[in-house]
Amino acid sequence: MHAIEKILAKNSGRTNVKTGEIVTASIDFAEINDLYLQTVYSFYEMGGEKVWDNTRCAFVFDHYAPAPDQKSAQNQREMREFAKKNDLKFHFDINCGVCHQVMPEAGVIYPGMIIVATDSHTTTHGAFGALGTGCGATDMATILMTGQLWLRVPEIIEVRLEGKPAPGVYPKDVILNVLGKIKADGAVYKAIDFTGSYVDSLNVAGRMVLCNMAVEMGAKTAYMQPNEDVLNYVKARAVRPFEVQFTDPGYSYAESHFFDVSTMEPTLASPGSPDNAVKLTDVLASGDVVLDQGYIGSCTGGREEDLVQAADILRGKHIAPGTRLIVVPASSEVLQNCIEKHIIQDLMSAGATITAPGCAACLGVHEGILAEGEVCISSTNRNFPGRMGSNKAQIYLASPAAVASSMLEGKIADPRKYLA
Model-level pTM? Predict the structure, then answer.
């Protein structure tokens, strides 16, 4: 069996499972963000009284952090009351950050577990050798009541990444290349297993970028065999014992895709869809793309490593007149670390606006939304029309380094010319 299948078998009390079967699995951790107050209503409508385990579920207030309007403030108040009533051990309020960042930091994510959250980018936690997937409010209410959820055993696609990237090519460039080939519907309700020497060498942050955007191919979940960096990270934080699952030798994937990372160049996703992958040099060759805004943040591009990439390019310089750069650290831990290392000060000196840790403008509700006709280059994961504000704005997806270099010129620019 594949490691994903072993996790599903273990949590459903079976010795083995196979593709297409439906299993009822125990959930190791459940997370609800502040978009999903309906989970609480559904919980009570179905007769719920107390959550099944107050140490295995949490609210994370990240999409509206801090609350930008009265409605979201009321939603958060009702969720706080539910958390207090159920004595939840873990509750991440508006001072914490994005769910997919704060949960690993808190040690509730570890290899071999099943994590379900009311967020499609829960695939991120495959970076830790966990099975992470998203669900809606009603399914989540069922989890809160029973600690279980039905899941279909998915087909598993191998994405093999070999080679060493050239300078200026980052994990974001790699996953955009993968998206450009597999496309937005290439892995619907399938799992993606990222393998190969490139994956083996990636640090925790880089692995999270790849798994995060697996859902942009329609994937139900993503997976990576934990490497030493992951195990050291988890061992230092994990709140529970864990067991790493390994794929059996000779496992037969439903399909396999090979990529040579050493041949990749800095890559963008053009407006409209994350799978509109195009080489940055091709964009430059077609003429200047003048920018109004740059954005560095989210569960894809707001970690310490991302802010360091940007600061290394912007240090001692200033963004172009008429542009604005918004930086949203993924968590308060990231923010604190970057303050201690003078990263935040360097970004601010370059003209960046720093906002509270959270999702912010990634979902188009506050802290940097776009007006009609504006053009933005962003380190986030989605560039659908209307994603960050007006449906007549345009969003290019790129690495934090490409965002930073573009802000210096006020137009899309190649980060390689600014690397030391």
Answer: 0.97
- For residue 198, count other CB atoms closer than 10 A to its CB: 23
Same domain flag for 319 and 383:
yes
Last residue of a domain, one of 236, 259, 282: 259
Strand partners, 58: 31, 90
| Phi and psi at residue 260, to the nearest 5° | -100, 105
Please tell me the total count of domains within the chain.
2
Q: At what angle do helices 70-85 and 38-45 cross, to 10 degrees?
A: 50
pLDDT for the residue numbered 420: 73
Among 258, 274, 299, which Cα is nearest to 179's? 274
Intervals of the chain under pLDDT 70 = none
Residue 205, judged by CB atoms within 10 A of its CB (0-12, 13-18, 19+), counts as buried
- Residue 215 belongs to domain spanning: 3-259
Place of tokens 């980060």: 415
The answer as to whether 12 is a domain residue is yes
Say if residue 101 is in the same domain as residue 21. Answer: yes
Report the 10 Å Cβ neighbour count for 359. 29
Question: For the purposes of burial, counting CB atoms within 10 Å of the CB of 251, is it exposed (0-12), middle (13-18) or buried (19 or more)?
Answer: middle
Question: Could you tell me which residues are beta bridge partners of residue 157?
Answer: 192, 255
Both structure tokens of 413: 């620019």
Residues facing residue 258 across a β-bridge: 160
Beta strands in 280-415 (DSSP E): 293-297, 324-328, 352-354, 375-378, 394-397
Tokens of 241: 């014992």
